[in-house]
Amino acid sequence: MTKFGYTLMCEQSGPKDLVANVRSAEEIGFEFAVISDHYFPWLDSMGHSPYAWAVLGAAAQVTDSIGLMTYVTCPIKRYHPAVVAQKAATVALLCDGRFTLGLGAGENLNEHVTGGGWPPVNTRHAMLAEAVEIIGALFDGGYVNYQGKHFQVDSAKLWDLPDARVPIGLAVSGAQSCALAGAYADVMIAVEPDPGLGEMFDNAGGRGKPRVGQVPVCYDTDRDTAVERAHALFRWFGGGWKVNAELPGPAAFAGASKYVRPEDVARSIPCGSDVDEFVKAIGAYSAAGFTDVALVQIGGQHQDSFLAWCEKELLPALRT
Fold first, then answer.
1. pLDDT at 196
2. pLDDT of the residue at 240
3. CA 187, CA 179: separation in Å to the nearest integer?
4. How far is CA 269 from CA 280, 284, 298, in A?
5. Taking the model in full, what pTM does it have?
6. Angle between helices 81-94 and 52-62 (to 10 degrees)
7. 195-224 in b/e burial notation, b at 16+ Cβ within 10 A?
8. Chain-centre distance of CA 311, in angstroms?
9. Could you count the other beta carbons within 10 Å of the beta carbon of residue 251?
10. All residues at 6 or more sequence positions from 146 whose CB lies less than 8 Å from its CB, including other chains
11. In angstroms, rounded to a whole number, what is the distance separating the alpha carbons of residues 264 and 305?
């Protein structure tokens, strides 16, 4: 049976609200929570971008059973992979093994802040492969030395490791990333219900492994209000990750989505309070072979009403 999760969207809420939201999500029955790891929001109107790893540490202390996962962390520019491994191991200990490290090749939006330019996609995938090798070696324990084309590690060791190895998820969007995930990952991550991604992941070695999807939704008792909010905050989503990964900042996302209309957003994101519409959109992921689906409620100030509706109507409908 598909597991349903809740998204801590750092780009639309401050750190204290995110911690309160994950506690509420656990209380109403969500089985896992994923968290974005950005330096910038996609649009200025979103208004936030706290440090995801500090939020995870706090989330681990206010929850007891809900799974936690980065969705996703880029270990190739803003963070060195050896540091990512240390952070992930620490969070896994704090939450008693409920943590999955979700990784991806990143976005210019967040990674440009450390300088050095934004590498082309082939280079980013090569860097990600090296990063996963380093992180996996550190998770296995002992001292690690690594001399790659892109990264060097000199006598690194994680002194605090959980008993069980931290699972690694990799984000996929095409053949190249699916091949990488099949070879290295314990979990496949994607943001579109494309069964072809799962097939490529299977063929590359991922058969039988979990796959986690994510779907944006915009609950409101008034559908027009929901559509307006989704358009204001999430109209960038339709660009696709191949485009979005290259844009350098919120102004670029605003320009790229300038001509996206509210009705365009409403066709791709369920808006309002029609349970059947939400179930259909979420169910597309289950039909495509995803084992876990995380929901993104659009609008930082609208999480409490969304969670209450999920407890009363949406989650029961999804589970039947």
1. 97
2. 80
3. 13
4. 11, 12, 10
5. 0.97
6. 20
7. eebbebbbebebeebbbbbbbbbbbbeebe
8. 22
9. 11
10. 130, 133, 134, 137, 152, 153
11. 25
The structure tokens listed for 258 are 């300038």
Question: E-strand spans in the chain?
Answer: 3-8, 32-35, 67-70, 99-103, 144-147, 152-156, 168-171, 187-190, 211-219, 271-272, 292-297
> Which residues does the chain have with pLDDT short of 70?
none
Phi, psi of 124 (to 5 degrees): -60, -40
What single DSSP character describes residue 249?
Answer: S
Q: Which candidate in 26, 107, 111, 130 is catalytic?
A: 107
Query: Looking at 11, 38, 112, 231, which residue is catalytic?
Result: 38
User: Which domains occur in the chain, in start order?
Assistant: 3-319 (3.20.20.30)
Give 316's contacts (C-beta < 8 A, 6+ positions apart): none
Residue 31 annotated among the catalytic residues of the structure: no
Q: Which residue has the tokens 């559908």?
A: 223
Q: Is 289 helix (H, G, I), strand (E, B) or coil?
A: coil
Q: What is the DSSP string of 88-110?
A: HHHHHHHTTT-EEEEE----HHH
Tell me how far the alpha carbon of residue 66 is from its chain's centroid.
Answer: 16
Q: What is the DSSP letter of 145?
A: E
Query: Is 107 an active-site residue?
Result: yes
What CA–CA distance (Å, rounded) separates 130 from 147?
Answer: 9
**CA-to-CA distance for 152 and 82, rounded, in angstroms?**
9
C-beta separation of 117 from 67 below 8 A: no
Q: Which pLDDT score is estimated for 242?
A: 82
Q: What gap in Å lies between CA 315 and CA 117, rounded to an integer?
A: 44
Under 8 Å between Cβ of 206 and 181:
yes
CA distance 77 to 113: 9
